[in-house]
Write a structure and sequence with these properties.
Length: 227
């Protein structure tokens, strides 16, 4: 396998394990073996082991002598902190999108929103997650701010995109929050767009943090208001 192909597989494995941890599917203190990751993704153990090493550097895993990789301590407050930073960056991108977007780009965003509404009505969470991903990519693209989008990408790598359908209230929150954001963007209201996006990201983070704490048996903290 080429170095590039192996890197892509290790990235895929890292996303998979990171998402499992962030969604609370794997609990702090649990052991995780490269062989298990490789079996789950049907890849070899080499990229799986590289992925676990990368997650160790990121602080998601610890390497314990004679025990191997275990999931590091993580709680809802850690998740809230990550989403607080993400909300600030995403809010700025939404504000810039008001000035940088063409009418055609805005029309594409509105079309994506309607596709999300349709997926929500037919209870298709997989399609909803996919359209949500493209919706946010479109907002970021409209901003015209490549360096800030790059910085946001460093934060969103921690978001468990594949597990949102398991989080109570997420589909409803997404539809409601995106409606406010679309209204602000189509009106080209920078302040309203910034507030709507920051509030949306903060809302999503709160839902994920509460879900995470509940799975670990922790008492959730009071909701944090962003925006």
């Amino acid at each position: 396998m080429s170095p590039r192909g192996r890197l892509q597989l290790s990235d895929e494995a890292a996303v998979y394990v990171r998402s499992m941890i962030m969604a609370g599917e794997i609990q702090p203190g649990e052991h995780i073996r490269p062989e298990s990751v490789a079996d789950a993704l049907q890849i070899s153990t080499t990229p799986a082991r590289e992925a676990l090493q990368a997650l160790k550097v990121e602080g998601f895993l610890e390497l314990v002598p004679r025990k191997g990789f275990i999931v590091a301590e993580l709680n809802g407050e850690d998740i809230r902190d990550l989403f607080t930073v993400q909300a600030l960056i995403a809010g700025e991108l939404a504000a810039r999108a008001c000035s940088g977007a063409t009418d055609a780009a805005l029309n594409e965003l509105v079309a994506l929103h309607h596709e999300m509404l349709a997926a929500f009505r037919r209870d298709d969470t997989e399609a909803l997650e996919e359209k949500n991903h493209y919706f946010h990519k479109q907002v970021n693209r409209m901003s015209g701010s490549r360096k800030i989008v790059w910085a946001l990408g460093l934060m969103t790598r921690y978001v468990p995109r594949r597990f949102y359908s398991n989080i109570e209230g997420w589909p409803e929150a997404t539809i409601h929050d995106h409606s406010d954001l679309v209204d602000a963007l189509t009106a080209r209201d920078r302040n309203a767009a910034r507030k709507a996006m920051a509030g949306h990201i903060g809302h999503s983070g709160e839902l994920l943090a509460a879900h995470f704490d509940e799975r670990q048996g922790h008492r959730p903290l009071p909701p944090r208001v962003i925006g």
